[in-house]
Amino acid sequence: MIISVLDTIYALATPQGKSAIAVIRISGKLSRTVPALFGVSRQLPARQVGYFSLYDGQKHIIDDVIFFWFEGPASATGEDMAEIQCHGSSAVIQDILTVLGNASGFRMATAGEFTRRALDNDKMDMTAAEGLADLIDSETSLQREQATAQMHGRLKQPVSAWRETIIAQAAMLESLIDFADEELPPALDTEMTEALDRLITSLAEILDDHHRGEIIRSGIKVAIIGPVNAGKSTALNALAKRPAAIISHQAGTTRDVIEVRLDIGGIPVILQDTAGIRQTDDDIERQGIDLAREHAKSADFRLIMVDGSQPDWQTDIAPILDWFDTNALIIANKADLSSPEPQHNRPPAGFEQLHLSLHRDEDIIRLEQTLERYLSVTNHQTGNAIITRARHREALTTAYHHLCAARQLDIARQTELVAEEFRAAAQAMSRILGYIDVEDVLDHIFSRFCIGK
Amino acid sequence: MTGILTEQGEEIRCRSVVLTTGTFLGGLIHLGEERIPAGRIGENPSIRLADRLRGMNLPIGRLKTGTPARLDGRTIDWASLEMQQADAEPVPFSYMTDSITVPQIECGITRTNEKTHQIIADNIHLSAVYSGQIEGQGPRYCPSIEDKVHRFGDRNSHQIFLEPEGLDDHTIYPNGISTSLPRHVQTELIASISGLESAKILQFGYAIEYDFIDPRALTSELSLKQLSGLYLAGQINGTTGYEEAGAQGLMAGVNAALYAGHAGAEAGQRTLFTLDRADAYIGVMIDDLITKGAPEPYRMFTSRAEYRLWLRADNADQRLTEKGSEIGCIGTARAQHWQARKQALDTARTLLSSSPKGPKQLAAASLPVSRDGAVKTAAQLLGYDQVSFEDCFTLWPELETIPQNLRVQLKTDAHYAGYLARQEADIDAMRRDNQLKIPDSVNFYDIGGLSAESKELLERYQPDTIGQAGRIPGLTPAALVAVLRHIKKPASARMAAGRAQRH
Fold first, then answer.
1. What strands, in cross-sheet order, belong to the sheet with B227-232?
2. Does domain A8-120 have CATH number 3.40.50.720?
3. What is the CATH number of domain A128-209+386-433?
4. The pTM is what?
5. Among A185, A157, A171, which Cα is nearest to A422's?
6. Would you say domain A215-378 falls under CATH 1.10.443.10?
7. What ipTM was estimated for this complex?
8. Which of A171, B114, B140, B414 has the fewest beta carbons closer than 10 A?
9. Is residue B300 less than 8 Å (CB to CB) from chain A?
10. What are the chain B neighbours of A437 within 8 Å (beta carbons)?
11. Domains in chain A: boundaries
């Protein structure tokens, strides 16, 4: 199949299946002609809503629909765009799509093609498109907030501003190099050092965000770990409110890692149930334990589940505690059974511990609440992370290193090297947004300074 | 290309021609309201040549430049002016020149003042540039004095260099006050400036408009894509400046000679002489011109060169002599001179990078020691800003044998070493992209997965290589990948795709 960007594209914008209303979106230069394909002779002006009966090729009525169209470039994709709102019946949708598919110059949109056209027509920049993709994927309110913020420029605005500053500074350096004879404003050095310090400080602040943007986007990983038969799978099922993991009284039931996605107080959580830790000769079980260790290490937070009715549980978990820092909560389960002496029941230093029984509903609610409190802290919920992807972090870190390197140099004597570092820093910023051209620097020089004899 | 027919009816038969028309091609001088067809003051413009080129349906545009009035140096009050001395030790361009012996002369410095600016403000409507007579785009970096006063209204003074035009010439070039104001205003304006109160004007300043050919119509050897054998150099290609013109003259001349020697051979079989962006500023300029065109007169700023730290005057021989030898442009004396220098450089580099010293020895010689206690070579030490050759003599006495004239270059190389290593990877990538030729037969409208904007950009710029396409302003990386995928397909598949798409 040959895909042309000149085609008018269409797609069902609402989910497949029965619903009150379904929306079909159309983008491309033939958008305004859509009613005519369905036997409607009336020409509808742009931005007016029409109520039409649509007919198929055999002059049979398909449905009564709402139709309107926007004239490009004032549309989401920047091209002419139209929308059909029909009844949400599979048959109606299918018939409408068939008529569109048979029309010359129309074809079904490929995945992401509406957004792609919006990008190509400068209706959206790279970061906004990423935000949109995240919004569509968002499952919790925090994810939604973060995605919408990125769509509205939470990343783009500071990055554009930093890039502007870097280009402005680079322009000053270039004017020192290329126009040494000219009368340039004095104190360029001080101005530049100050600007550089401000840039370095703001970048360092942004980068020191404990990866919370990336964590919200992909979900906080919480691993449930501990000795066999402590109730790890029971905890997973209780929090997931469904039987996601098989549970039995037989020790070593869970071998693979089982993951469920949860929304705990708006925070996206990936809860991982892992194999219980014990000495074993079973090869498969040992692999499961290795996997458990890896997940315990890579998780953002851990629930260490122990059987609190056993007197020696502290000894059992001692080796596990060496795997990570203190970002964990100890849950002493089975509080409904007999408790050991208090001296055997204290949490290891630096850990908080929760006594509960997963058989009691109020205890499960207490676990949820405690977890939410912990995750909000882990997550620094109050701050606004602007970095949501590894790609952003990589580029901003590169820029940061180049700016720090520039700061180490002597601006007056090593002008060309400082310029080199600025160039690299600006390029890194541009990788997030678009790209830099030397003309940006020259434009800046000529608009700011009176250059030329 | 068969030859030239001059205005006098003279016929010169030749296989290749280089056009260097400067401001003469369709030249039109503006002086206040006067409009004088001329190549420069007192000389006829090239009108028939301009008509002939327009007849070839080439992309032709208009550019503008200006010049200040010329003054009689004997009428300037030098005693009242600040003077700028010539360099005490002028540095020659070439290593074959040991020292510069011609006399050096000083320049004067004066400034415009509020009275000058008032005269300009009162008469700006009479300036050809401001009355809307001129269609050609002028350079932003050589504004006329009326431009400077208009655009930078907060400045109440601009600097003027009074430059003698020759050793035995009284003509003074007042650099900084190019203008197209009418004669009587120029007289008043000059007289308002300190030191120039009774200066005599030898010739009035003016603006000149001329034809240029969009350099995107050129190949990298500076010949017209649509007429092989016809080479263009200088202002006709949209550039400004002496060095820019000289560099193109060299490249066009060499290639025109190579072409004449191999006339009839296909482009693939001929020897071409081209330089890329990492070879020389010449390569940067020509690549910029043929890729991006010249929306304003093009000037070679060092900031246009991404490999600026490598493109240095001190290593020009190292970068270019052997390339020149390959096409027979290097004389015996120069070739021998370079061979000797190259050997000396190699020996010196070996000395600098052998016998590394440990931290104790370095500390004893008061040289910088790294915290990790690693051994260091002299080359590494010279990378420190504060370490000189002389500082290294205690530990490496053999370095004293390195001739003085190599030390500057070696110190610079060491100083830039980290940056140069980083750039090397970029240069390799750039050269790989330039190897990826986009065949002439490619129709960009046939490429699938490209936005209409990208197609238009590609059709307009007609890049010859993937490297060039990557430098087109506004072309997205995704578009570049689509083009790359397309040219990697076999030719037959490309044609089929084209037919299907057009259908």
1. B17-19, B227-232, B223-224
2. no
3. 1.20.120.430
4. 0.72
5. A171
6. no
7. 0.73
8. B114
9. no
10. 473
11. 8-120, 128-209+386-433, 215-378
